[in-house]
Amino acid sequence: MRFTYCPDCGEKLALREIGDEGNIPFCEKCNRPLFDMFSSCVIILVGDGKDNVVLLRQNYISEIYYNLVSGYIKPGETAEECAKREVEEEIGLKVDKLDFVGTFWFGKKDMLMIAFIAETSNREISLSKEVDEAIWEDARLALDKVHPKGSVSYTLVEKFLKNRFDSK
Description:
elongated, alpha+beta
């Protein structure tokens, strides 16, 4: 989101050069820059410590592809706390181990996705209202079920497979 008006005083913003950032919307009345904002969210591939991962069906996201646990970071929450909370909320599983994978820009929705691979020892899924279906799937079959190559979901499954099977 790019600011046009100051959210505090309502003044129309001017552009001002701020260091190396270039021209940034600036409130002359409040004397402060208003940098562009975007949503931050997490995306988590949940595995069972063996060869299986959880795939979700959320029809409001896709009726064709399975997706992974994901959600928005709340103010005051770390990405790690959010990842554990989202796994528990969406599929009712406690995370035993959480590994950071990387960050991905999702331009379609102007959001930064912070990606993790999680491990759980519990396989008993309990769905939230926002999840239509969740299945345990052999990770080697998951690439054909998630969004295509280039998506964050696909990248996480590839990373899981590389870590899981290249080390054997």
